[in-house]
Design a protein that fits this description.
4-stranded mixed β-sheet; globular; alpha+beta
Length: 121
């Protein structure tokens, strides 16, 4: 078996992250990771190498309200939670890092909910 799909995924993620960092101009990065069962989001300060806020479908505050962690409703709940935690940390502007995922479906639902929650990107 070849690792070609994984290699292409990594290459696309590196390409997207490079462009995001170029466009960021000092802003923090809202990074998204999507697995088959859950979705995760975190706000990262690349200069300091620290995570300032994080949320996922595994979080105890939203997990009981979700039917499953792998649908658009769950991603929307994570987007609202990450926006709420960012506001609590004093973060208003970020740059959105979709990783190697297409801006569609769960990733788009998370981004739209984060925008509705008050984050600017």
């Amino acid at each position: 078996m070849s690792n070609k799909p994984e290699m292409l995924f990594r290459r696309r993620r590196q390409r997207v992250r490079f462009r995001v960092r170029q466009a960021a101009k000092g802003r923090l990065r809202l990074s998204v990771f999507r697995s088959s069962r859950h979705i995760y989001a975190q706000i990262v300060d690349d200069q300091a190498g620290r995570t300032l806020a994080a949320a996922s479908t595994l979080d105890g505050t939203i997990r009981p309200n979700l039917k499953t962690g792998s649908d658009a409703a769950a991603a929307s709940a994570v987007g609202k939670l990450i926006a709420e935690r960012a506001k609590a940390a004093g973060i208003e502007r970020v740059v959105f890092d979709r990783g190697a995922y297409l801006f569609h479906g769960r990733v788009k639902a998370l981004a739209d909910a984060a925008r509705e929650g008050g984050l600017e990107f």
